[in-house]
Amino acid sequence: MSILKANLKHLYQRRGLWFLYGLMCLLIPALTARAFQSGGADGQNGLFVILIAVSNIAGLFACSMQIDIAVKPFSLCLPGHRRVKRQFLLIVAVVTSLLFSLIFLLYPGIGVAGKFMAVTAAFFAGMISFWIGTLIAFSGNASAGFLGFYPIIGIITSKYDLHIALEKAIVAEPATICVIGLIVSIAAWMLLACEGWFRRHCGAQWLGLFDAWNWGKIRKNGINRVGKLQDGILSRAFEKVCLGHIRNASMRVKGYFAGTVYTTFGGLFCKPSTTIASLFFIILIVCALGYLKNISVMVYLVAGMLAVNVRMPVHSTMLIAGGRRERFLATCFMAVVVTVLLSAAGTVVALMTWALAATEIMGPLTVDGSKLYYRHVSLLGFYIPFIMVPVGFAMQLIFNRKPMPMMVAWVMFFLFCVIAAVFVDVVNIWWIGAVAIFVAASWIVFLAILRWVCMTRPLVI
Amino acid sequence: MNIKTDNEVAMVQIRGLEKRFGKTVALAGVDIDVQPGRIIGLLGANGSGKSTLLRHMVGLYIEDAGQCRTFGTEARNLGPDQLGRIGYVHQDGELLDWMTVAQHIRYVSAYYPNWDKQLEDEFIKDFDIPLKARVGTLSPGKRQQLAILLAIGFGPELLILDEPAAGLDPIARSRFLDLLLSLIQDPNRTIIISSHILSDVEKVIDHAVILREGILLRDCSFDDLREGFCKIRLSSLDGDLPEELGFEAVGPVQRSDKQVVLTIAAQPAQQLNIKAAQLNCGIEVETLSLDEIYRIVVTL
User: Fold this and answer.
1) Distances (CA, A) of A451 to A380, A454, B83
2) By CB neighbour count within 10 A (0-12 exposed, 13-18 middle, 19+ buried), where does A20 fall?
3) Contacts of B108 in chain A (CB under 8 A)
4) Quick one: closest CA in A to B148, which residue?
5) DSSP code per residue over B70-103
6) How many helices (H) and strands (E) would you count in chain B?
7) At residue A185, does pLDDT exceed 60?
8) pTM, to two decimals
9) Would you state the pLDDT for residue A335?
10) Of A192 and A431, more confident
């Protein structure tokens, strides 16, 4: 078997991709039908180029798969393996772009020759989109993180009607698109001949697209990041305060509380390199939230998602002399602190949307013909983290060391909440009794599970 | 270990301890008493139940049956008072990765008013521990060294070391053994050390506990264990050795026409000399290394 064939086998051997294929099988016919239906007589609604955008994701996935292979030090050293990577990418690029460009055969209002030209131009536009996807994959060490930016790119594209402009260009200026696509493809082909693209990933830390389930890889990736941490005035002050409380605690359990706060949040105070990126991310969230109508309560819902990743002191090591009772109490305390902080953080973000809405900077957005107006996020959702965080913690306890089932369970729960938020205006059913029941129920469930784990289960990490 | 005098109260008392993980029997009715001032080597192959046993002692696991008491308290109910007397080094050396080494030491030492700063300084110097490095970036060996420092820094009465030398290079291992030897100068300190590297362990232990598939095979003083077996070399004084030697070998036998080396259950020297004389052979008796004894015990 040739190396190329062996590499292409990854396309059906990786089970994670089957999920993607399944999603595409549902999405592509739906998008095609929608584009054809709403295109009307003259087209130009921008929906025909959506599949070209999918080429971008295909590029990200295909390149990530090749990097997955390159990170294994032996693979890059095997004869012929370096050359085959660009061949693999080219084959996937051509096949996906060709498939997705065929939608232009349905484009209304142009003759056979025009359709042929449009398909050719769409093919090259797909190629460009694919190569941009590969570039994104090369630009970091955790490609899965880039998936989160697609909704933001979608909003920007929609706001400035970039999709309509591209669709027009494909139909009206196919020759130009073809020439640009050809130049970009040749440049990408030549650039990929340079071994350095893959070599720099050889043996390096890399979190692939399907590694979110891999506990070991997530841990290794985390270790890679801690090497870049730096201490500053804030982190030193925080340490001083917490250690002071531990040393001078009148009751021993107070010392554990201080220690839990320190070990949980201390790392956040020594990340100056990510501060700017975090601020940028928050601004993007604030800008996007206002257009999401009922779903804008996601800012509160996401608190639970964060809770899943906060490490509880239940399975802590034997570094400190805390028994099962102390672990239980310290975790209860930490859960309350985390919930209050996440609720406060959600409220602050909501307040920012109020400020932004007041300035009227954010104009209306047209998506699929309908206008979306920027609206502030209700402050009444502050109670949502008080429900979500205990649920997130409870899941963490139930699925200890089983990140895949935990993530699946959590995503399903999260989606359920988001869908519920679409149909029920959760912040406007503000009835203190209902809220109190939900909050109490989630805390009772969490505390019961926590007690069960702390008192009867193995506490080894 | 299970011979108690009146003034000795067991630090850890285990009776009929059973633990299962699904269908796997990790511990099958183990009985052990850990007396103060002992250095106990816990020996066994991978999966023999060593770590499981140690984790029961500190209350990380809860027994399916039987009893495990540490400092007179049910291990599952151990509180800060008892756990503050136990130093424990994990097999995996789980630490807080985001902290620097110095921060980590400060954090753990904050819990212990009796933290030994002098020991800390000496340890850091001897083992060349990088204080400014983030714990997550340390090599496995350095992580293990840090874990050891954090476990011994507060002068625990009971020090439990689960494969402490596994990640250490030969020089660090040698230094670690020196450190153990200095730690055992305190007569009130008890150390339980589980290890695969038997040649290291045998330099420091005075008791041995051997486990196989969750079953306790031996629980005795190291001297008793050593005296239980010996290696004899019989050399024919005239002609070839007879076919039947009259010794029951418990280990591998190396035989040539005129000489045989075999491992046997120990017998009085006089008895051995008489037998050798009857066979018209010269006899040399050698003691066995822990490694050799271990192999015999687990295969018997």
Assistant:
1) 31, 5, 20
2) middle
3) 319-320
4) A319
5) ETTEEGGG--HHHHTTEEEE-SS----TTSBHHH
6) 10, 14
7) yes
8) 0.75
9) 94
10) A192
Say which range, A121-125, A276-280, B239-243, B280-284, has the weakest mean pLDDT.
A276-280
Task: Check pLDDT > 90 for residue B138.
Answer: no
SS3 A248: helix
- Taking only the tens place, the pLDDT of each residue in B240-254 is 777 777 777 777 788
Number of Cβ within 10 Å of residue A405's Cβ equals 12
B115 occurs within a structural domain: yes
User: A-contacting residues of B 190-249, CB under 8 Å?
Assistant: none
Q: Which one, of A215, A273, A266, A268, lies nearest residue A238 by Cα?
A: A266
Q: Which of B148, B151, B145 is nearest to B171 (CA)?
A: B145
In a domain, B6, yes or no: no
The boundaries of the domain holding residue B141 are 12-225
Residue A276, pLDDT score:
66
Q: How far is it, in rounded angstroms, from Cα A6 to Cα A11?
A: 10
DSSP bridge partners of B87: B159
Judge whether A167 and A43 are in contact, CB under 8 Å: yes
Residue B2 lies in a domain: no
The ipTM assigned to this model is 0.84
Nearest chain A residue to B93 by CA distance is: A317
Residue B151 with chain A: CB contacts under 8 Å: 318
Distance from CA of A133 to the nearest CA of B (A): 31
Q: Residue B27 forms beta bridges with which residues?
A: B19
Residues of A whose CB is below 8 A from B77: 323-324
For residue A273, the chain B residues in CB contact (below 8 A) are none
What pLDDT band is residue A275 in, cutting at 50, 70 and 90?
Answer: low
Residue B61 sits in the same domain as residue B179: yes
Give which of B73, B96, B146 to mutate to test A binding, by max A Cβ within 10 Å: B96
Residue at A291: amino acid letter: Y
A431: alpha, beta or left? (left if phi > 0; alpha if psi -120 to 50): beta
Best of A317, A401, A455 to disrupt the B interface by mutation (most B CBs within 10 Å)? A317
* CATH number, residue B136: 3.40.50.300
CB B110 within 8 A of CB A243: yes
Range list of β-strands (E), A358-422: 365-367, 370-372
Instruction: Return the higher-pLDDT residue of A176 and A16.
Output: A176
Q: Is residue B7 part of a domain?
A: no
